[in-house]
Amino acid sequence: ISLFSLLVFLRYQIYYGYPLETYLEFPVVIAQDVILLSCIMHFSGKVRRAFFYAVVFWVGWYMLTLQKWIIDLAMNLCTFISAASKLVQLQHLWETKDSGQASALTWGLSVYASAARIITTVMTTNDRAVLIRFIVMLILNIWVTATILHYRKTKKTD
């Protein structure tokens, strides 16, 4: 799902002709994910399945821009899916009352990245859908970070 969201976001940025600086890291992250998934599929003996997924994503890449409403809907659905995944993480933290292996630093960096993206979006494109996405992600990232900090276990000293 993460790779799908990255592809939709990249396609959305290209479709609207936004400056390369606003999405330059996405092709790199996508390439990294594709290489990782290809290795996983290759070493688990599922090369045919990898080919099937590649064809599905390739077709989807072009179908996203058949009409403006399709790419706009896909962008909004990706925001919803990303928000839902963070809410699931929050629910797990609340139920277990334990941050487990969740890293406050990693989530804190996500807070920083979301805040930086809000600023750069306002300065470059001022796209409402992108801005809403990053505002929602900022709020949820802050919430997850605060929850992790709240439930983290402190080391007991003798």
Automatic annotation (TrEMBL):
It comes from the Eukaryota. The keyword Calcium does not apply. Keywords: Membrane, Transmembrane, Transmembrane helix. The keyword DNA-binding does not apply. The chain crosses the membrane at residues 26-43, 50-70, 130-151. PANTHER family: MANNOSE-P-DOLICHOL UTILIZATION DEFECT 1 LEC35 -RELATED, SOLUTE CARRIER FAMILY 66 MEMBER 3. This is PQLC3 protein. It comes from Motacilla alba.
